[in-house]
Backbone:
């Protein structure tokens, strides 16, 4: 049973893009719906942060991979999404069209950029600590658990100064790796509630069709219905991504082949780790 | 001693990281494992830490040691030769 997995925002963009007609069509769609020129990685009109560009780029790459697999005749029996990978997943499941997925990623990214401008937030990627130790570190450091990817791979979200201190303490107490990344907003934390009104207004602008294949949400591993999608899109920005639990639930559902549609292969690597501990 | 370990380390990398379609001979002994070369990342590194402990009984205790150990296949083999019980 095939499972299509849609990852969240990549940390960097690939300088070499596919040169075929399908990608050119998606690049034109991206430009039309967001203003981002994928080949130059610049904005046509207005200026937005690199984070917004990466969010849009991530969706475009996922949509392109989906087109490629569709051409090969591969179809998913179930789909799953991680963080902002949800927009491409919704398009792949037929709930929204490709242009709407790109536009949603752009509008959400631009909203977060505008709403939290002037404040210094960061993401912290922590590898090699247990969930118990992580919980203590996060509580003491006043940062939040943004992604629970595996038993030993986590993403924290919060203020930059707090993040630097927390990652320093994590390394001192035996973490294998701790890296800090810039972000526009405190993604996957309750702090996002500040932008809830604007974001909810964006999500209510679209009409969501029933997913054509089961789409598992990454918070409580339920399958999304069209009526639940707008609320989930808001909720997923304020709550922890539970990838470890999602992968296990997909296995229980019967998924046997996992295909990652996006930039990089982090979900595949998380799955490999989870599998090695089963 | 560490020269003899090099093919075993390469096989361990392939097995633990489930690299498909690659034989041990295709992994360069002195090429960087991270960034360039095999393009590994911190997720892979932790998987290698666990594999080294399981296959060779060798512990990589912290991030600073890991950075040196996982520089290349040769540095991994040297570390294993030095610390194997």
Residues:
């Amino acid at each position: 049973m095939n499972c299509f997995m849609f990852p969240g925002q990549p940390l960097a963009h690939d300088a070499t893009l596919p040169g075929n007609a399908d990608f050119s069509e998606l690049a034109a769609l991206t430009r039309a719906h967001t203003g981002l020129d994928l080949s130059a990685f610049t904005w046509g009109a207005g200026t937005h942060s690199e984070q917004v560009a990466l969010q849009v780029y991530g969706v475009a790459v996922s949509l392109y991979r989906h087109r490629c697999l569709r051409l090969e005749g591969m179809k998913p029996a179930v789909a799953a999404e991680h963080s902002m990978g949800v927009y491409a997943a919704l398009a792949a499941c037929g709930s929204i069209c490709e242009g709407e997925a790109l536009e949603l990623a752009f509008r959400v990214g631009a909203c977060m950029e505008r709403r939290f401008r002037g404040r210094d937030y960061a993401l912290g990627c922590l590898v090699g600590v247990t969930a118990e130790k992580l919980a203590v570190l996060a509580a003491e450091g006043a940062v939040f658990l943004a992604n629970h990817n595996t038993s030993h791979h986590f993403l924290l979200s919060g203020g930059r100064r707090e993040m630097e201190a927390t990652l320093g303490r994590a390394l001192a107490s035996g973490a294998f790796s701790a890296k800090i990344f810039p972000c526009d907003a405190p993604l996957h934390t309750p702090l996002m509630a500040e932008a809830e009104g604007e974001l909810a207004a964006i999500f209510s602008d679209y009409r969501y069709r029933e997913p054509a294949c089961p789409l598992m949400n990454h918070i409580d591993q339920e399958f999304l219905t069209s009526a639940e999608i707008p609320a989930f899109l808001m909720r997923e920005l304020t709550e922890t991504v539970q990838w470890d639990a999602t992968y296990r639930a997909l296995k229980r559902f019967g998924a046997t082949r996992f295909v990652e549609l996006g930039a990089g292969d982090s979900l595949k690597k998380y799955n490999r780790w989870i599998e090695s501990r089963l | 001693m560490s020269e003899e370990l090099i093919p075993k380390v390469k096989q361990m990398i392939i097995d633990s990281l489930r690299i498909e379609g690659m034989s041990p001979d295709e992994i360069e002994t002195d090429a960087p494992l991270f960034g360039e070369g095999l393009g590994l990342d911190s997720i892979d590194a932790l998987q290698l830490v666990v594999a080294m402990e399981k296959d060779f009984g060798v512990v990589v205790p912290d991030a600073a040691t890991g950075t040196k150990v996982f520089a290349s296949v040769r540095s991994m083999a040297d570390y294993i030769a030095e610390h194997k019980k």
About this structure: Chain B touches chain A at residues 16-18, 41-47, 49-50, 62-63, 66 (CB under 8 Å). The radius of gyration of chain B is 11 Å. Chain B has a mean pLDDT of 88. Chain B has one domain: 2-20+31-83.
